[in-house]
Structure formats: structure tokens, C-alpha cells
Task: structure prediction
Amino acid sequence: MLTGKQKRHLRAMGSVLDPVVQIGKAGVIDTVADSAQAALKARELIKVRVLRNCPEEPKDALLYLAEETSAELVQVIGRNGLLYKRNEEKSRIELPS
Result:
């Protein structure tokens, strides 16, 4: 579980990121979860965009994706969300305590 200070730090880092995963008309399917998992392993912090043709509400889709990838949902703004998952082997992001 992330603290408020850690979430604030991640939100600041995520503000300059471009979305690397998009959830489309099929919703959160296995291929979307797999690509998000791979991106999280490589980057630890990713931005996800929920397209307008997605059948679920953006927050619900992002919560489900976070659950599927065992990641933390840091923020949801409109149709964009930030996901964070620490890479235990080689961590790139140093979180404040």
C-alpha cells in the first residue's frame, strides 16, 4: 500500500508520461493485461488510457486492470490512469518514505 507522499511523488512523475496501454471496445482482455504487465515490468510506472468505446466506466476498467496485474492504481483523471508496480529484481523508481 502506498502512502500519500509516495502517491504524490508518482503522480508528479506520471504527469509527463504518454499512455503506453489503451483499453478499447473489448475492455480489459488478456492481451491488454499482458501488455500492461510487460510495460510495468520494464517501467514500473505506466499511464493507461481508456478509449471512449470501452463498455466499462474508466475507473472500473482501470481498477480491474490493476487487480489483474497486481499493481497499485495511483490516480484516475478522466479517461487516464496511472499504475505502479515495483520491480523486485531491478527497481528504477526510488519512493520517499
